[in-house]
Structures are given as C-alpha cells and as structure tokens.
Amino acid sequence: MHAAAHASSAAYDQGLKLSSQGRHLEAISCFEKALAERPDDIRTLFALGNTARALGLAQPAAEFFRKVLAQDPERVEALVNLANLLRAQGQFEAARALLEPALARNPQNPDLLLTLGSAWRESGDNARAIEFYRAALAINPTYPAALSNLADLLSDDGNVEEARTLYDRAIKADPRNAQARLNRAVLHLLTGNLKEGWRDYAARGDITSKVPAAKLSLAEWRGENLKRTRLLVRAEQGVGDQIMFMSVMPDLLARAAEDGGSVVLECEPRLVRLMERSLSGMTVKPQALATVNGTVTADYGWLKAAGGANAVTLMGSVPRWLRSTLDSFPQQSIFLTPDAVEQTHWKKIFSGLGPSPLVGLCWRSGKSGGHRSVQYAPLEAWGAFLQALPGTLVSCQYDATADEIAALEKLSGREIFVPPALDQKNELDRTAAMLSALNVLVSAPTAVSWLGAGTGTRTLKLLYDTSWTAFGQSYEPLAPACQCLMPATRGDWRDVFEKAAALI
Q1: d(CA 397, CA 437)
Q2: CATH number attached to the domain at 340-502
Q3: Segment 269-297, tens digit of pLDDT
Q4: How would you classify the pairing of strands 475-476 and 289-292?
Q5: E-only strand ranges, 216-334
C-alpha cells in the first residue's frame, strides 16, 4: 500500500461527511477530486465503491472494489462488498468463487463466513448456508446479521422457537437492526401473535426499500381519538401491499367520521380511481416520488392544496390500532368497488366464451427472478391441474408473454382466453372489474390475488409455504375471500394443485 494512502485529504474527508448524510452524488464529486490528487489512494477507491453502491451503480462500484483488491487482495471489506454485488446480480457461483479462497486464507473471519453462507442460501442450499451462519456465530456469538439470517432459515424450516430466540439476540446486539425486527414481526404474525407482530412491523419504516423517505413535520398517529385531526395515511411498499392494507381503510374512515376527524390517503397512482370509488368520503391522492441525493423520497407538495394534515401514519401501521386480534377482522370483507360499467362489459365478454366456471389464472409476480422464483409454481406444474379443470380459463397474468400462454395451452391441451385491449399491469381499475366478473381466481401470491379477493371474487392463493398474512389461518383475514393453499411439505406444488382442484 502506498504511503499516500494513509495521508489525509480535505476532499476525502468532505466526501465521507457528505456520504454519511446521504448526499451521495455530492460525495462522489469530492472523492473524485481526492482521487485526482492521489490516483491510487486505496481509501478513496474503497469509498467510491461504497458510494456508487449506495446509488445503485453496481458496475462502477464493482470496478472500484476490484481496483482496491488489485492493491490489497486481503482486504476483506472489499471482497465482501464485491461478492454482495455479484449476489445482487444473481451471480452466486461467481460470489462463492471469490469468497472461498479468501476464507481458506482467513478461516476465522465471520464476515466471509456470513457472506458465503448467504451465497449458498441464494443458490438454494439452505443446509450449507446454516453451517456457515453457525460457524460465523461460533466466532462472534453477537453478530447481528448472522443471528438474523440463521433465524430466517430456521423459521422457514418451522423451528419457530429457536428462530425467535435468535431474533431476540440479534436485536439485543443491535437495537437499531430494523431488518431483524421486521423479520421477528413476520414470525409473530405468522403464528397469530398480532399484538407483538404489529409492534415489530413498525420497523419497516426504517428500511428505505420499504418506505420512501419524507420531509414531514407531523405528529405520528398511534390510535388516538381523531377529533380535530386530519390524518395523512402514507403509501408504502408495493401495489399488492397497498391493496392488502386498503381492507382496513373503510374502518379508519368510519372511525374518523365518528370522532369528528378526516383522512387523506396517499396511494400508488394506478390505484387512485379504484380507491376513490371504494372509499367514498376519503380524500385519495396519487403518490409522488422523487430521487433526492440518490434516495427515493415522497414529495408532499400537493398536501396543502388537499386540505393539509396535522397527523401522519403509514398505511401498514393502521392494522396495529384497528386489527389487534383475529376477532377484530370482519368475516366477510369486500373492500374494493369495481366500476359498474366495466364490470358489465366483462360479464358480457365472458358470457360468450364457454361453460362455467370462469377460472382466472395468475402464475407469477412481475418480480420473479433470483430467490423469489421459488415462490411461484413452474409452468410445468400447472399442466395436469389445468387439464382437469372444468369451465373456461382466463389469463389474469398482468405481463404474460405469448410464449407463456402457448406453453400453458400446450401443457393443458386447452385454450386460455386473454382479455383483449386490457393492460392488466397499469389499468388496475379496469382489471379489478374484470376480476370481479370471474367465478374463481387461482393465483400466485401477487397483487392480483389481493385485487381479486378485494372485489369478493373467490380466490385460491397457491403458496410455496405458509403465509404470514394469514396469521396462522387457512385464509387471508385481511381479505376473507382469499383461501391460502399451503403444502404439507414446503414447495410441494403437486399437493397445492391437488388442493386447488378439489375446491373448484
């Protein structure tokens, strides 16, 4: 390492300060100035790699880390960061190939053990991942990430008690570990412990990928009386999550009316028309997002014109105050009101297709790559099921490809009707009306399942494993029209499809 690498630089120091403030673009400018002064400075190269990574610039970040390793092949932080970039791109073998020689040289390094374990986990070898996580903990028993990751896998395997203990240890070791608290929330909710589950679920507010940043000076609503209160309900997470939590909004609206308050609801723009119709009396506004210094931030420039607000809550926080026990959930919940004209339109189209029942099909999410792909039954698993189904098949896959439709038709020996002139991904109001005209919807765990069940359409959700949103039940309490089909053995799609066939 060059002696200059140890020297201080005003530009470098300023870059670190800006980076710590989340001002990553400004930080890069400073680091580039520092690098111009000392082209091989390893600290600056490393800082540039970290900052580029924070901005989502995977390729430049990887190049900076490779430059660091060219000077110092034993720099574990650079090895781990580069491996994590490879993992994020689905290059699990490349990540392992990078880490394994380093671990052979540093067998007692918990960071290498942890990262290698995660690479095996994402490759589908949970048993080997567990071995690496336990090895990391044998060296550092209070390693929060290893504790949390091991808990995740044990929870998946049904080892609930040890998983809960490990989450507790992870949070004790790092009280600010939002991901561990969120994962513990899922474990609580999965087993029907709603009180503790909703409490921990608040941790998602500290995870930027879940909740956009916001510049708001409003009191947080914690279930208090809404008298003289105008409550802003912030949008969060994906479309499916927003539809799911929408099921609680009618009760919130009633609560506000009873207390003498009001509610303004922010939601994904594609949902506005549907929510305005479904929540008469609630102000509904489209979510406006901007990227500020590399951070996705919600823009509330519209709020004043919409009547302002003096309190705020996240959409997913409302159930904590209104759905604290299973008894507080309605047994019948139709919380989405489809457009009557559109509904009539689809009923007319469907009436000429063929025999009943009309069976809608959705086989995957739009985000189905990497570790998520295991959550969705492969097309081959649908074949025998579709062959045996009565009635008429309708594609409810919002970005279905012609190849997918052709493959399913070949596997099933049946025609699958694709609704014409309907963008099922972007025209969610029209799609809800189409789904409401079906007799039954068979769906992977996607936004489609929530959209269909929310209109009252009988929905069969095909699950790889148990679902935390079922709270230990065989259906979705947030959308009782949705029945959860969980296999006796995780990933046994034959079992899942046999259960679905018996219900149609």
Answers
A1: 16
A2: 3.40.50.2000
A3: 999 999 999 999 999 999 999 987 778 89
A4: unpaired
A5: 219-220, 230-234, 262-267, 283-286, 289-292, 295-298, 311-314
